[in-house]
UniProtKB/TrEMBL annotation:
It comes from the Bacteria. This is Sec-independent protein translocase protein TatC. Part of the twin-arginine translocation (Tat) system that transports large folded proteins containing a characteristic twin-arginine motif in their signal peptide across membranes. InterPro entries: TatC. Forms a complex with TatA. It comes from Hyunsoonleella pacifica. One of its GO terms (cellular component) is TAT protein transport complex. The gene is tatC.
Length: 273
């Protein structure tokens, strides 16, 4: 059966098309999750519990960075906490959900590809031609964000929360799901935050955002970024500065991208007029 033209498709046809794209995305994630499930030792011993080890490579870098900023943070990293599973299915459940998380991260380029395949028929030929790099750029930004979350935000959070104590009478014994939840939230949130330039690109394309709006609210964005940095990092000035800098850079890049989109739209309107 020949595929219908996008202009001839009804709302239900679009829903059916979206359903198959989502099914293929789920299949890709499950295949990648199965691979991650089989690599249990590497996933948990090396990756998940890597930031909980005092010799994790990031701590030395953070120590030197904080010293450049005039602080003395992360230079005496020593963890004395234990991670425990307190439910019968706790470890198995953690294994399953961690594998699915890794499956989504690994399959992200394909998920973006399926999203692009769904929206591309509605684009003009020229727009479709120039948007092919969307898959590569969005995947690259996502992976950079994931690495930033894993190598920066996770160590910052674990270093603070793992050593924080209200009294010597209380020993830190963390639940397995709580520990993995911190890793998962830090990594996925960072990956999505780094998609900001892509989001601004599409918001500018549909006319919701303009460079002028982004410039006008830049000072408010600075406050929001600092608040966001304070939320996802420990209450340590050095940590907040380290996290805030790349987010501010992304915001500035988003302004430039918005300018380019508006400029191209004006050129096109002028040519058609």
């Amino acid at each position: 059966m020949a595929k219908k033209d996008v202009n001839e498709m009804s709302f239900l046809d679009h829903l059916e098309e979206l359903r198959w794209h989502l099914i293929r995305c789920v299949i890709a994630v499950m295949i990648a999750a199965t691979v991650a499930f089989l690599l249990k030792s590497f996933i948990f011993d090396t990756l998940i519990f890597g930031p909980s080890k005092s010799d994790f490579l990031t701590y030395d870098l953070l120590c030197k960075t904080s010293q450049l900023l005039g602080f003395d943070s992360f230079c005496n990293t020593n963890f004395n906490f234990e991670v425990q599973s307190r439910t019968m299915a706790g470890q198995f459940s953690a294994h399953i959900w961690t594998s699915i998380t890794f499956g989504f991260i690994i399959a992200f380029p394909y998920v973006i590809y399926e999203l692009w395949k769904f929206i591309s028929p509605a684009m003009h030929d020229n727009e479709r031609k120039h948007s092919k790099g969307f898959i590569i750029i969005s995947s690259l930004l996502f992976f950079i964000g994931v690495l930033f979350g894993y190598y920066i935000i996770c160590p910052l959070s674990i270093n603070f929360l793992g050593t924080y104590s209200v009294t010597d009478k209380v020993h830190n014994d963390f639940d397995l799901n709580s520990y993995i939840g911190l890793i998962r939230a830090s990594v996925l949130a960072s990956g999505l935050i780094f998609e900001l330039p892509i989001i601004i690109y599409f918001l500018t394309k549909v006319g919701i955002v303009t460079p002028e709006i982004l410039k006008t609210y830049r000072k408010y964005a600075l406050v929001v970024v600092l608040i966001l940095a304070a939320i996802i990092t420990p209450p340590d000035i050095a940590s907040q500065v380290i996290v805030a800098i790349p987010i501010l850079i992304l915001y500035q890049i988003s302004i430039y991208i918005s300018k380019v989109v508006v400029k191209n739209q004006r050129k096109k309107a002028k040519a058609n007029g």
